[in-house]
Amino acid sequence: MSWDGGTIYGHQEGDKILKSPVLDLSVISNDATGEVNRYFAKYQGLTVNVYPSGAWRVKGSFHKYFNRGEHNYNNFSYLEFLEIYNDLIKTLRINPKQAYISRIEVGVNIIPHIPTRDLLTAFTLHKSRPFNSVHAKGIDFLEVIYNEYGEKAYDKAKQYRQPGQKFRFEHYATKSRLRETGIRKFEDLKDPDIYNGMGEILIREINNCLIIDSPDYSKLTTRQALYIKDWMNPNYLGRLSGEYIRKGIKRVREFVDTYDLNSIHEITTELISEQILKDQAYTSFHHPFLTMVSKSVNPKDTYPVFNHLDNCSKNVIPGTIIKQCSVTGLDISMQEPNSEYLTPIGLRFYKENNPDKYMEVLSEYGPYDPSLDEDTNFNRIAHRIRNYVSDQWRSMRNLERRYLGNYSLFENEGLYGNRAIHALLLCNKNTIPCHSNQV
């Protein structure tokens, strides 16, 4: 999850920005009178305007600024934002306590479980408004706009002509909606609680979407097929309003649940939640070197112990960095290069080539429902595997909040329990901690 960009402004001290040695400022003046209207510059993804009154406004992407203005394709973490925070203050010569935020954008990138174009096709509504297809700045994206906030979904790999799949979901807030986030000044973006709160808002907004799987029309009546086709048609949705759309949304959600047409929504939400949880692990609330462990698998009869985990090579067994599922430990080299967990592709591979391993996975993450087709079963099993990691992490986070302030930082004990292993996996992808022999 990243602070993608926004708008910062101030009512004074514009003269300090004019003295910045790195900004190549142009003068925008009135042709008739020669009076200066404003000073203007572009720098590393930012647009800077300074007015004769001393007021100023900076708009653009913090993410692009981090990449020297070239792109915002990669992930941009909380720690990386902190790296450029002081640099921005120095470059722009602004006081963060007198620099206000009028707009903020936050987004998250994921590797989707299906092609990104198919995922975007499944997006229909946010709350009661249809997503609109927009083409701007060389990119196609879906967008829904309200008075003071909005949501955007698009193909990040296609935007930068990169191979593979990368989906991005964004939320922006302005004016009174900013009060919900707790953001008022530029310095607020450093607050880890505010950063974590924005993650919760992102998850809430993806949950507010209506994302519908493409159904097997052969299993539907003609009337049902026409009904679901209408609800997957943006032109149809755009004509609805008032009480009809409210009742219709309730009915279509029931229809989607009844016919299991919500797997894309559920899996995408889980992938976004997992990525946000990983990024939150690097705030001060979840420092990567302080990992919670437990002596019991039952949180009701345990107490939290925190071990100091130095995130360096001495804590990894040489040769253990392999392409494997973070949950099952199985080889997943047959899947997409960026996949982290066993997917339907991997499940099919094991069923056909290693039935014993497949049955082990099935016994742990099944059951297999013979009344459903094979693809649906594979999707459900893969979903449970992904869920396992995020559920463990949430359990750890809840325990940490419950016992915050009542723990020892340097307890001389080993790591205990699956929660510890999966916490490490989240911080050190696909590596095995050196203390794993004590688990």
Characterise the protein shown here:
Strand 7 (123-126) and strand 8 (129-130) form a beta hairpin. Helices cover 38% and strands 20% of the residues. The radius of gyration is 25 Å and the shape is globular. Helix 12 (344-353) packs across helix 13. It is built from 15 helices and 15 strands. The protein has 3 domains: 2-210, no CATH class; 214-261; 287-438, no CATH class. It has helices at residues 14-18, 62-66, 78-92, 116-122, 156-159, 175-181, 192-207, 222-231, 234-237, 242-258, 263-280, 344-353, 355-365, 374-403, 418-427; strands at 2-10, 26-29, 36-43, 46-50, 56-61, 100-110, 123-126, 129-130, 132-136, 139-145, 149-155, 167-174, 209-211, 290-294, 304-308. Mean pLDDT is 78; it is low at 284-321 and 405-439.
Q: How is this fold's topology laid out?
A:
Elements: E1 2-10, H1 14-18, E2 26-29, E3 36-43, E4 46-50, E5 56-61, H2 62-66, H3 78-92, E6 100-110, H4 116-122, E7 123-126, E8 129-130, E9 132-136, E10 139-145, E11 149-155, H5 156-159, E12 167-174, H6 175-181, H7 192-207, E13 209-211, H8 222-231, H9 234-237, H10 242-258, H11 263-280, E14 290-294, E15 304-308, H12 344-353, H13 355-365, H14 374-403, H15 418-427
Helix pairs in contact: 7-11, 11-14, 12-13, 12-14, 14-15
Determine the fraction of residues in helical runs and give it as a percent range. Answer: 25-40%
* Residues in β-strands, percent: 15-25%
What is the rounded Rg?
25 Å
**Through-space gap between termini:** 31 Å
The biggest beta sheet reads: 10 strands, antiparallel
Shape: globular
Strand order of the largest sheet: 2-3-4-5-1-6-12-11-10-9
Mean pLDDT: 78
Structural class determined from secondary elements: alpha+beta
- The helix count comes to 15
Number of strands: 15
Our count of domains comes out at: 3
